[in-house]
Amino acid sequence: MRRSGFKFWLIFPLFAFILSTVVFAQSNGQGEYARRFQNGSQLYHLQRWSEAAVEFRRAEETAANVNDRSAALYWVILSQLAHTDYGSALLDMDELQRSAPFSTFTRDMNYHRARIYFNQGYFEDALSYFNNYLRLTENTDRETSIRRAAAYFWMGECLFAMGQLDEAEKFYAWIVGRYPESPKIEAATYRIDLIKQKKIEAELLALLQWSHEESLRTSEDYQRTIRTYEHTLNVYQRRIAELTNNMNELQLNETQEQEPYDSISRNNNIRQPLENIPQPVYVPQTQNDELLERARELGSHVQELIRDLEARGEL
């Protein structure tokens, strides 16, 4: 009995020393965590983002439990986002998802991850993560309401950047109607006005395009009409020239054929029967006059068409 009691009193001081050392280390670790976290917060508010991330990282390394570690890692990510270090932020988001999948910090990461994808131009992925954030949150307090309004706004921005103006306008209108105290309401109102202006511009552009195409079609019709009249005029002119040549040849032949009969008649006083004398082909003068008149009318019409086009600035 004496020996066992002696051993107990021999071991007890050692056990007490170890316990006090552990308690001191824990208290010292908690103090280190609190000091690092406070330093990071001060640097963050001073907008010294990279230094703040370093302090929050050291706080994460000295955290005694999962909640403290998640909080420190959350602020590491916020500091990286402020410093536009998107690659590191995404890696730490994945780590936070693995270490604390059901924490409020992980839930909020949907919003911040969506913002990263928006800034990098991945609008469809950003829409998906914004939607996840809205699905996991409710308007329980003012801060959450402000964040939800911002999520709606950035979803509208994604759609606006993708050219889906009608859908984007619905999100902006939702903010104006449901979140009048949101800091995004002025930007949402501006976007609504801009979308309306873009719609008017699109309608005017379509109208101008239609007018231009119609003008081109009209000009082409005029050009075809002019070419048709020119072709018809050339045909009539060639026809007139052919008729004129034929008349000249007939008159020449008539003169040459008449001269022998006149000579014989004068010398021999022989009168040939009228029906035996070849008669020239007669072309009525009225036909030539009609062709010439038609050609002149066509020429005048063509000139009027040309003057009309020149007056409209199409030639």
Task: Write a brief caption for the model.
The protein is mainly α. It contains ten helices and no strands.
Classification by helices and strands: mainly alpha
Number of strands: 0
Any idea what the radius of gyration is? 50 Å
Specify the overall morphology.
rod-shaped
Largest sheet: none
Mean pLDDT, all residues: 77
The termini sit apart by: 127 Å
Name the poorly predicted regions.
1-26, 269-283
Number of helices: 10
N-to-C series of helices and strands: HHHHHHHHHH
Describe it.
The protein has about 325 residues and is mostly helical. Among the domains are: about 20-100, Serine Threonine Protein Phosphatase 5, Tetratricopeptide repeat; about 205-310. The chain has helices spanning about 1-45, 50-60, 65-80, 85-100, 105-120, 125-135, 140-160, 165-180, 185-270, 285-310. It is rod-shaped and about 140 Å long. Mean pLDDT is about 75; it is low at about 1-25 and about 270-285.
